[in-house]
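2024-03-11 09:14:02 DEBUG pipeline.ingest accepted 1 chain
2024-03-11 09:14:02 DEBUG pipeline.ingest length=257
2024-03-11 09:14:03 DEBUG pipeline.predict start
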Amino acid sequence: MSGRIAVIGLGPGEARWLTPEAAAELAAAEAVYGYGPYLDRVPALHGQARHASDNREEIARAGAALAHAAAGARVAMVSGGDPGVFAMAAAVIEAIEAGPAEWRALEVSVVPGITAMLMVAARAGAPLGHDFCAISLSDNLKPWELVERRLRLAAQAGFAMAFYNPVSKARPWQLDRAFAILRAELPATVPVIFGRAAGRAGERIATVSLAEARGDMADMATCIIIGTPATRIVPREGLPDLVYTPRRADAGGTERA
């Protein structure tokens, strides 16, 4: 079987964040599949088919792309950021597991990209400088009770946290609820970094304390980083502050500079 599928991370959005491997895979693809706004980031090439679909059609999109590849085509599936972080790589592999035997014989390549939490962290300094975790606040694929439990445990364990999918029109209350849970576990002074459209036009990075953080400061284009009790802000006269989490921790789990 000569078919091939590459699941490609586009990074934050601008062409300069696209890796050379990802660019080469896109240039070689006969067909490109993806969520419409992500597909719009990919320049159209002569003779290359493009198949856009809605955000909640991941498995159907994966199945269509795999069927196309199984017919002998070289196919690209695009994701924003990194395809393995709340994105299409897991959906494609899930579809392979549940699909026909010929899909397992395909050549599959997962091409990494810069994910949102890494771009936001880089803009702020090094808030993920020690142990951290990433949590999607969406309850489309898991119960909200599980989200709340993970928030509490991550805060108690001393992890910095990156929040993906923090709010939507369908769930405008969940981010404020998440902040309330964290305020019960963490000092009010813990830094919270809001990174909207990081790495794209209209980028906005803002750091506030956990006490000041509100749900209306974010939308679905925002990735949020929650620091730890040891996360520090380094003020600089005439320059942006630097936020970092110290690299060392004591036996009690508290980081120290």
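2024-03-11 09:14:41 DEBUG pipeline.report The mean pLDDT is 95.
2024-03-11 09:14:41 DEBUG pipeline.predict end
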